[in-house]
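FYI - complex with NAP, inputs then prediction.
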Amino acid sequence: MRDFIARPEHGIVWISGASSGIGRALALKLAAEGYKVAVTARSHEKLVELQAEASGLSGNIIVLDGDVTDAEDMEHVLASIEYEHGTLAMAILNAGVYLPVHAEDLNRADFEKSFAVNLSGVVNCLLPAIRHMKAKGQGQIAIVSSVTGYGGLPTGAAYGATKAALINMAESLKFDLDKMGIRIQLISPGFVDMPTVGKSAFLMPAPVSLEEAARQIAGGLKSRAFEIAFPRRFTTMVKLARLLPYGAYFPLMNHLTGWRQRPPLDDHHPVMPHPAE
Ligand SMILES: NC(=O)c1ccc[n+]([C@@H]2O[C@H](COP(=O)([O-])OP(=O)(O)OC[C@H]3O[C@@H](n4cnc5c(N)ncnc54)[C@H](OP(=O)(O)O)[C@@H]3O)[C@@H](O)[C@H]2O)c1
């Protein structure tokens, strides 16, 4: 079966988590290329601002509020796309949260929220998206994972675990979706230099700008590659590092992230909040 690549004439591109960051930048990029882009997040005002910003572009933005942790919300969003705006041609499942986990200060809520948004949230979007695409025998899906899903990294006990699960989820679904005419891809960004980012808990090597991230993703969505990973050299290096014996992997990652120099967490070294939160 030929790979389906969604073009503007095929219908709507849906992006979850488009009120800020990568999802927002990608929505603008795809709208500039002529796509009709349905954007979902909880922050209605920010989505409306995004819609206004895209008003001069050749495509356009449709605002569809929703919380990915609410399965019914996602069913409504998909019904609204299909019955009010057009066919769902592509779903980019991007909504996610990064809650740094420190073993000295564990709390259940960080794990539960990460799993609810990053994992169950993707499942809540996938179910209606695949159902609609299956009925038409075509469609394109891209799941946003992260280089942190390749292997354990400092602070990633919840976030990295969800991203590793998404990698496995996308790989596993591909076997069946290929037969159904639905193309699934994995988006694996390295570190994206967000304008609002303060100091993170560890060094983030090889950051790329939001614009570059959107450019890489938009290009990759039109390629036949299963994985859209960038920046290429850094993501390849982390993937190869995962093949090392653990005796070499942990010292290398300690070095690359600067984690070895970081003192254990205590009252004098409070957790740095992550800007994505
Ligand atoms: N930034 C990086 O360096 C980096 C690297 C690799 C992968 N990623 C991944 O890229 C994706 C986007 O992250 P970002 O860096 O662009 O972060 P961001 O600016 O914080 O964007 C996250 C988006 O997800 C939405 N969101 C969060 N919880 C939601 C919920 N319950 N329901 C619906 N939408 C929700 C947020 O909108 P509302 O709050 O308005 O709902 C926002 O639009 C995430 O999956 C992240 O893991 C980021």
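Confidence is low (pLDDT under 50) at residues 272-277. The pocket of NAP is lined by residues 16-23, 41-43, 46, 67-69, 94-98, 117, 121, 144, 146, 189, 191-192, 194, 276 (CB under 6 Å).
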